[in-house]
Design goal:
Elements: H1 7-38, H2 43-79, E1 82-85, H3 93-106, E2 112-116, E3 123-126, E4 134-138, H4 139-144, H5 147-162, H6 165-192, H7 198-246, H8 249-259, H9 299-311
C-alpha cells in the first residue's frame, strides 16, 4: 500500500530539493567557465581562469545583494501600485484582521498589508525578513474568495515569509543582474585583447571570449531553468506550509481553482521578474510556457497535492 505523504513530508522534500538547486548555481558557473576556457587553454590555466573570474563575480553579487536588500521590497510594491491599509480603515478592517489572525496562527509577526486595485485574483509577499514583511492582495481576490479560501491564500503568503523565500528570490535576481553585467565587461575586454605581443594578445582574447560564452550559457540557459525549478519547489512548499497553518488544505485548493481563471494583474505585465513571487503567474495564460521555464507548477498538481494532504 502506497504511503500517503503528510504536510511535513512535502515540506521536507521541497526544502531538500531547493538546497540542491541553489548549490548547483556556483558549481555549474565554475564548471562552465573551466570547460569553455579549456577549449583554448591548458587545464591548469583554465582552472586558474575559472577561479579568477568566480571570486570577483561572487563579491560583486554580495555587494549588489546588499543594495537590493535595502530597496527591493519597496520597488516591488511600487511596481504593483499597491497601497498600505490599516486597522483604522473601516472598509479594510476585516481583511486586515484576517492577515493578523493568520500571522498569529503561523507564529509570525503581523506583516504590513497592501491592496492592489485590480479586479483580478492574485497576491504576493515581500520583505527582507518576517519582521519587516508585507502581504499584497488584489481587490479581486478579496471580493471573489470566501473567508476560508482567502485565509488559505494569506497562509500561503505567510508561508513564503516564514520560509524566507523572498530573500532567496532576491538573491537569485541579484545574481542574474551581476552576471549579465559581468558578461558585457568581459566581451569588451575580449574585443580589445591583452598583452604586449601578438601571440599573447590573441591567446588572452580567445580565453576572454570563451569566458564570455560561459557567462552567456549560464545567464540565458542554466540560470532560468534552475531559478524556475526553485520557484516551483517553493510554491509547493508554501502550499504545504499554508495548509499546515490553516489546517485546511481543501480551502487553498479551492482558492487556486478560482485564482487561475483570472490571475492576470495588468500593472505587472512588464515586470516579468515578479511573476515568481505571486501565488499564480500574473501574466495570465496568454503564452505557452514549457514546464522547464514555468514560474509555477501546474495548478492541477498543486491541487492534487493539497487534496492528498486533506486525506492524509
Amino acid at each position: 500500500m502506497k504511503k500517503v505523504k503528510t504536510v511535513y513530508d512535502h515540506i521536507r522534500s521541497n526544502n531538500i530539493k531547493t538546497i540542491i538547486l541553489v548549490a548547483c548555481f556556483p558549481l555549474i558557473f565554475i564548471a562552465l567557465v573551466f570547460l569553455f576556457t579549456w577549449i583554448v587553454a591548458p587545464a591548469d590555466q583554465a582552472m586558474q581562469t575559472a577561479i579568477q573570474v568566480a571570486i570577483p563575480t561572487f563579491i560583486a553579487c554580495a555587494v549588489w545583494l546588499l543594495i537590493s536588500w535595502a530597496f527591493g521590497d519597496s520597488m516591488m510594491l511600487h511596481s504593483a501600485h499597491a497601497h498600505e491599509i490599516f486597522d483604522t480603515d473601516k472598509e479594510n478592517r476585516e481583511i486586515f484582521r484576517a492577515v493578523e489572525n493568520v500571522a498569529i496562527a503561523a507564529g509570525l509577526p503581523r506583516p504590513r498589508v497592501y491592496i492592489i486595485d485590480d479586479d483580478s485574483m492574485n497576491a504576493f509577499a515581500t520583505g527582507r525578513s518576517p519582521r519587516d514583511a508585507s502581504v499584497a492582495l488584489t481587490r479581486g481576490i478579496i471580493k471573489k474568495l470566501d473567508r476560508l479560501e482567502l485565509e488559505g491564500v494569506i497562509a500561503h503568503e505567510m508561508a513564503h515569509i516564514g520560509n524566507r523565500d523572498i530573500r532567496l528570490d532576491m538573491m537569485l535576481i541579484t545574481g542574474v543582474g551581476v552576471t549579465v553585467f559581468a558578461a558585457d565587461i568581459i566581451l569588451r575586454l575580449a574585443m580589445v585583447g591583452g598583452g604586449n605581443n601578438e601571440d599573447n594578445k590573441n591567446n588572452t582574447g580567445a580565453i576572454l571570449l570563451m569566458v564570455w560564452l560561459a557567462f552567456i550559457v549560464f545567464n540565458w540557459i542554466i540560470t532560468p531553468i534552475l531559478r524556475m525549478a526553485i520557484s516551483r519547489n517553493r510554491e509547493y512548499a508554501a502550499d504545504a506550509t499554508g495548509a499546515q497553518i490553516t489546517r485546511n488544505p481543501a480551502a487553498l485548493a479551492s482558492a487556486l481553482r478560482k485564482i487561475t481563471t483570472d490571475a492576470r494583474v495588468e500593472c505587472l505585465d512588464k515586470v516579468k521578474s515578479m511573476a515568481a513571487v505571486c501565488i499564480a503567474n500574473p501574466g495570465g495564460p496568454r503564452e505557452f510556457i514549457s514546464s522547464l521555464m514555468a514560474t509555477h507548477p501546474p495548478v492541477e498538481k498543486r491541487i492534487e497535492r493539497l487534496e492528498s494532504m486533506a486525506q492524509g
